[in-house]
Amino acid sequence: MGAADGRRARGFTLIELLVCLAILGFLASLALPMAEMTVQREKERELKRALWEIRDALDAYRVARENGAVLGPSDRPPYPASLQELTREVADARADRQGQTIRFLRRVPRDPFAEGAQPAELSWGLRGYQSDADNPQPGPEVYDVHSKSTAVGLNGVPLKQW
């Protein structure tokens, strides 16, 4: 009695294995772009958070200068000279707050799209107060920040314009 008497050999044929491998390869090729998009989306979320954090700190610094809490030259706009200035602890200059200090950022967040291992404060493009929004240029003060990346976001807008 041989295999012809009703007992079948168990296992996969070579064709079945090749078909399974082809299907798995196809599914993997679909998953890879989705994984790349997920990584891009997360980096864009980080960029938005960092921009909000820095811009909120710049606005808080301006308000503190206008309210007399932070002293500075009256002949220049009420913005810090550098991003690093936002992380320094300064004495509150208001008479009713003697002995208290102000700090606007714990640390400068890094641009998630910045290349290399440069310090966080150097990873951003800076815009001075007198600079045009369409062509941001650094000035003696930091009015705004933008990403230096040449990449385009998933929304189709270049990251420099965020």
Question: Your description of this structure?
Answer:
With 162 residues, the chain is mainly alpha-helical. The chain has one domain. It is 33% helix and 7% strand. The model has no long low-confidence stretch (mean pLDDT 89). It comes from Roseateles aquatilis. Keywords: Membrane, Methylation, Transmembrane, Transmembrane helix.
Domains (count) = 1
Uncertain residue segments: none
The helix content is 25-40%
Strand content: 5-15%
Task: Give a short overview.
It holds the Pfam family N_methyl. With 162 residues, the protein is mainly alpha-helical.
List the helices and strands and how they pair.
Layout: H1 14-66, E1 90-91, E2 101-102, E3 124-127, E4 144-147
Antiparallel strand pairs: 1-2, 3-4
Keywords:
162 residues, mainly alpha, two-stranded antiparallel ribbon, 4 strands, 7% strand
